[in-house]
Specification:
14-stranded antiparallel barrel; elongated
C-alpha cells in the first residue's frame, strides 16, 4: 500500500508513553497502532512511570509517597503477507499496580509492615487483517493473557469502625499466574494522500479462574463467635482456593490527519468498562462481612489529542494533552488517585528511511481522591503528580 511520506515519517501514534495510575488498573492503553503500519514492520519499546502519591489518613497522619515506580516493555511485529492479507503479533502489559505504604505512623501500616500491592498482567495478541482496497482494513484475532498478584493489607485502615471484630490487617493473598483467552476485532480507514487514518478497535473482557493462597494473622485476641476468642498471633490459611476475576472490555478510537505541509493532528479516545469490575477472594469476603478486595464504580473515559511536525528528513516531534476520567471516587487504597490531566513532548530521529529511534516524556496531574476500605473513607490523597518516560525503536523490512 502506498503511503504519504509525512505519514511514514511521523509515527506519533506508536509513542510508548502510557497512562500512569490511570483509571482502575489500566496501564498500556492496548494500542494496535504498530499493526496498522505500512508494509513489514517491527518495534520494541519500554515505558517508565514515576508517580508521587501522598496524602493524609482518616486521623490526619501524613502518608508519604505510596506509589512505586514501575516499567513495562512492549513489542510488535507486522507482516504484509500478500497485497490484501496482513499478520501481526503484539505484546504488552495492559493492567497492573505497584504500591507500598511506608512504616511511618499512619493507618496503612502496623509498625512492622506496610500495606503492599503488586498486580501484573501480560498480553499477547495475534492479528489477521484483510484489506479489500487501499483504504479499508478489517482485522481480528485471539488474545492470550496472564494475571498474577501479591497483596498484603496492614494497619487500622482495615478494621471496620462499625464492627471491630472485622479486622483485615494481617491479611495476605497471592494469586498464582493463570492464563485465559479473549478476542479483538476492528477496522481502519485511510486516505494516504492526506495522511488520514481512523480506526476503531474492540477488545473483549477476559474471564480468569485463578488459584490463590489467602492467609490471615490475628494481631490481637479477637472474638469470632459467642464464647470463642482467637488468640493473638493465630494464622489462618486458605490454600489453592479458586478466584474469579474478569479484566474489562474496552474500545479504542484512533484518528490522525494531515492539517498542513509536514504537520499532523492526532487523537485517541479510550473507553474501559470498569464499573462492574470486582475481585472477591473467599476468605476476605467471609472475614470482612461481604466486602471486595478491589472494585470500581464508574467506567473509564480517556482522551489524548496533539500535533506532530516533520522538521526534516531525519527529525520530527510532537506535543499532546491528555485527560482521564478515573473509575469513580472514593477509590481503593491500593491506587488512591482519580484520573489525570497530562501534557507530553516527544521526538523521533530517523538515521535512514527504514528505521527510527523515538523518545518522549509526559507530566501528569493526578486527580484528588478519597481512599476507602469496606465502604469507609480512610484517607485523602491530593495534589499528586507523575512523570512518564518512553523509548522505542522501529524498523521496516
Amino acid at each position: 500500500m502506498k503511503l504519504n511520506k509525512i505519514y511514514s515519517a511521523i509515527l506519533l501514534s506508536t509513542l510508548p508513553l502510557t497512562p500512569a495510575l490511570a483509571a482502575g488498573l489500566d496501564r498500556s492503553g492496548q494500542s494496535i497502532a504498530a499493526f496498522l503500519q505500512s508494509g513489514n514492520y517491527a518495534e520494541a519499546g519500554i515505558s517508565v512511570l514515576d508517580p508521587t502519591v501522598k496524602g493524609k489518613d482518616l486521623i490526619k497522619n501524613n502518608v508519604s509517597d505510596m506509589a512505586e515506580d514501575y516499567y513495562f516493555p512492549s513489542a510488535a511485529i507486522k507482516v504484509q503477507a500478500t497485497e490484501q492479507i496482513s499478520l501481526g503479533l503484539l505484546y504488552d502489559q495492559p493492567f497492573g499496580a505497584d504500591a507500598m505504604y511506608s512504616l511511618e505512623q499512619s493507618m496503612f501500616t502496623n509498625g512492622i509492615e506496610g500495606t503492599k500491592v503488586e498486580v501484573e498482567t501480560h498480553n499477547l495478541t495475534a492479528l489477521i487483517g484483510y484489506q479489500p482496497t487501499e483504504n479499508w482494513n478489517f482485522y481480528a484475532g485471539p488474545v492470550w493473557q496472564t494475571v498474577e498478584a501479591d497483596i498484603n493489607l496492614r494497619g487500622r485502615a482495615y478494621i471496620s469502625p462499625k464492627d471491630p471484630s472485622k479486622v483485615l490487617s494481617g491479611y495476605n493473598i497471592k494469586v498464582h499466574e493463570e492464563e485465559a483467552f479473549g478476542w479483538l476485532a476492528g477496522f481502519a480507514y485511510q486516505i494516504p494522500e492526506i495522511a488520514l487514518k481512523a480506526s476503531v478497535t474492540y477488545r473483549s473482557e477476559i474471564k480468569h479462574k485463578a488459584k490463590s493462597d489467602e492467609s490471615y494473622t490475628f494481631a490481637q485476641a479477637t472474638p469470632i463467635a459467642p464464647n470463642v476468642i482467637v488468640p493473638a498471633g493465630t494464622t489462618v490459611n486458605l490454600s489453592n482456593a479458586s478466584l474469579d476475576a474478569t479484566t474489562p472490555q474496552s474500545v479504542n478510537l484512533d484518528f490522525q490527519t494531515g492539517i498542513a505541509a509536514n504537520t499532523l493532528a492526532f487523537a485517541n479516545i479510550r473507553w474501559v468498562h470498569w464499573d462492574q469490575f470486582a475481585v472477591t477472594p473467599k476468605a476476605l469476603f467471609a472475614r470482612s462481612g461481604g466486602n471486595n478486595l478491589i472494585d470500581y464504580s464508574d467506567d473509564q473515559w480517556s482522551a489524548t489529542v496533539g500535533v506532530g511536525r516533520k522538521f526534516n528528513n531525519q527529525w520530527s516531534g510532537y506535543a499532546s494533552v491528555g485527560y482521564d476520567s478515573g473509575a469513580g471516587n472514593p477509590v481503593t487504597t491500593l491506587g488512591p488517585t482519580e484520573g489525570y490531566w497530562s501534557v507530553g513532548l516527544g521526538g523521533q530521529y530517523s538515521p535512514a528511511e527504514n528505521y527510527f529511534i523515538q523518545a518522549g516524556v509526559k507530566y501528569f496531574w493526578l486527580g484528588d481522591a478519597h481512599a476507602q476500605t469496606g465502604g469507609n473513607i480512610v484517607g485523602e490523597f491530593t495534589d499528586n503528580y507523575a512523570l512518564g518516560y518512553g523509548l522505542k525503536i522501529g524498523y521496516r523490512f
